[in-house]
Amino acid sequence: MGLESSSLNKLIQPEQRLITLTGAGGKTSLSHWLGSLLKANRKRVITTTTTKILPPSRGHIVLKADGPDFINRVRTAFTAVSGITVARDYDPDSGKLLGISRETVSELLDAELADVILVEGDGAARKPLKAPAGHEPVIPVESDLCIGVMGIDAVYRTMSKGCVHRSEIFSAVSGTKTGDVIRPRHLIRLAESRMGLFKGSPAGCAKAVFLNKTDSPGGMELAAEFTRLLARTNWTATGSPDIKWFAGSVHNREIFTLPQIIPALSPEQIMQPAFS
């Protein structure tokens, strides 16, 4: 996977060591993809969660519940592999790995075992959109970058519990009602709201939105619609110029930047490839 570092840095800056993913519509898949890209760039990567995740289909897993000397067991694992998944325990009833605490994330960061730690900080019940409840997301305080994920395939679907996790909260944040058509502006509100995608992100933490599933029918046209809307947004009024926007498809291994200011761009210039 011959990935140029400059391409990966469009989303992740070299100095960003702790990256938390929130939202819905492909967080786990994106985390696995970013992990593989970083490992291909000779980075040691820890993948973990502060909630629950399905175990990876392959790879080394270290469970804190398996015994003492957790940090040393992670260090030892890195002598054999460059990517490790860590969790508190495995729950046989749900088939998921249980998340570690913010304090354990801090221990891993302080021990400098990995070049990058990827944290899944939100659950979404496999739905394309999610608004966080009061206790969500769980974002480590040292996070350098928070990536908010949304499934672009939710746009122009009916707002319902079947499409949106915690739909009642999404309704309050986005201004929609059950039965309304979900439009791009509703996803932009979810990203911009203090109660939305980046709720609880620490001061100084960079923010990036990733609109996943542009490989779905009409997905690329929807991404272009987002670009046009973002270009018209009054960033001074919303106070959100610090949010970078990306779209793409984890399935197809491609990601595009969405320019926030696009004076007279041609259709082929609207989305610029970041990496694929």
Describe this structure as you would to a colleague:
- With 276 residues, this protein is an alpha/beta fold.
- Helix content is 25%, strand content 24%.
- The protein is globular and about 50 Å long.
- The model is unreliable at 1-6, 235-239 and 261-270 (pLDDT under 50).
Key attributes of the depicted protein:
single chain; 276 residues; alpha/beta; ten-stranded mixed beta sheet; three-stranded antiparallel beta sheet; 24% strand; disordered N terminus
Task: List the SSEs and their pairings.
Blueprint lengths: L4 H4 L9 E6 L3 H14 L4 E5 L2 E2 L6 E4 L6 H8 L5 E5 L1 E3 L4 E3 L3 H9 L5 E5 L8 E2 L14 E7 L12 E2 L1 H8 L9 H9 L13 E7 L6 H14 L2 H4 L4 E7 L4 E4 L14 E4 L1
Parallel strand pairs: 1-8, 1-10, 2-5, 2-8, 4-5, 9-11, 10-12, 12-13
Antiparallel strand pairs: 3-7, 6-7, 13-14, 14-15
